[in-house]
Amino acid sequence: MTLPVPQPPVTPIEWTGTWRDGALRILDQTRLPRHEMVVDHNEPETVIEDIQRLAVRGAPVLGIVGAYALVLAARRILAKDPAITRPEFLTRFEVDATKVADARPTAVNLPAAVARGLDLVHNTPGSPEQLCDALLSSARALDAYERDACAKIGVAGAEWLRGRKRFVTHCNAGALVTTGLGTALAPLYVLQEAGEAPHVWVDETRPLLQGLRLTAYELGKGGVDHAVISDGVAAGLMRRGMIDAAITGADRVCANGDVVNKIGTYPLALAAQSHGIPFVVAIPLSTLDPNTPEGDAVPIEQRPDDADIYLTEGTAAHDLSVHAPAFDVTPASMVSALVSELGVLEAPNAENLGPWRARVPGAQSGSAPGR
Question: Domain range for residue 53?
């Protein structure tokens, strides 16, 4: 019997209207959990700004947001020059598309979505108006696909994890990073809906506290029992037998199965491996990157302003030097299972990931711009 799938506890983005009069509505995640502030965007630059300041974040939703940003860019080109020729439209569109793709470098979904948008406008016959319509249809299709993928991830992951009660997760990989139930949190929401009452240990996720601010917020809205812990606590809980599995999302999974995710994921995987606890990674297929062979080839975003966090709190000297990578790489050999809408793949590696890689949208089109 298929496990029941609940409704997402929160909606991070929504497109309203047609391509002519619509807007991209974004829930500002920098204001959470205290304020649920929603902003309508009509220009690609304001969407790029929201991506860069983490008002919207998480690999799957960044791809969707990127697709909708292309609609805004195309509409503006046409509004400024209603009589524009198709070749000139394409030239201007490519400039805007590259800016969208470059908004954040590590998560594969964003540049991949832009690459698909570029392929679409170059290979779809018709006027600029027809291209705008095609771009919105494509963005909505991606939105719907990712939503459905989350439900399938939730069911497949819950079936694999069934019987385990206590989980630890890192960063935020729930409904706030998708238009559905999320990735890493989706199986936990499904287990909750099935009456299995999971308990979730939520890493704070230093230094930006996505776990504390976002994961705890949405687990609370979803009615899932949880407790926040500092990033260094999980290993001790594992040693005491208080964690049955670790589950995270990813911003990119490479062709060999290496996982690129929020900084602090690698230590969690090390601790899980040391204590014989499953380390599970949940992703939509769109986060699998068939064009990057291994984790060391991925550009890792740096956050140069993180010193401000410590200075604001008054806990450090003003001449503080901070090294602040936003992500780290967990080798495929440490991943017990990879979960996607295709099901569960245990011990992922370059060989057994082959069938999944072949089904990644645009897998044969080469690397996306700005990757």
Answer: 13-146
